[in-house]
Amino acid sequence: QVQLVESGGGLVQTGGSLRLSCAASGSILGFNSMGWYRQAPGKQRELVADITRVGMTNYADSVKGRFTISRDNAKNTVYLQMNSLKPEDTAVYYCNLNKNLRNYWGQGTQVTVSS
Asked: Rounded mean pLDDT of the chain?
């Protein structure tokens, strides 16, 4: 089993910054990628950013240049540094781990950006 525990969400004003953390535990050896998705009210869950086991990163166009994903292998933790936040970034952010074509999800953390 895989457990993902997120932290770091909250309320911030437009232009502000937040850093999300996701600590992974359990049977994570050999995972393919870890990343962050988000879901706003009435919208589908969408990829924000992910990072592969070998360190390749991928970002949604809407966050390129503003968000940075990184990973601490020693701590089995992935981070999402979010800068220049906009109201449209408001959503529940979910940590994701992909292993053997199976997706594991965290419980989600709310990010709210006020205008």
From this structure: 96
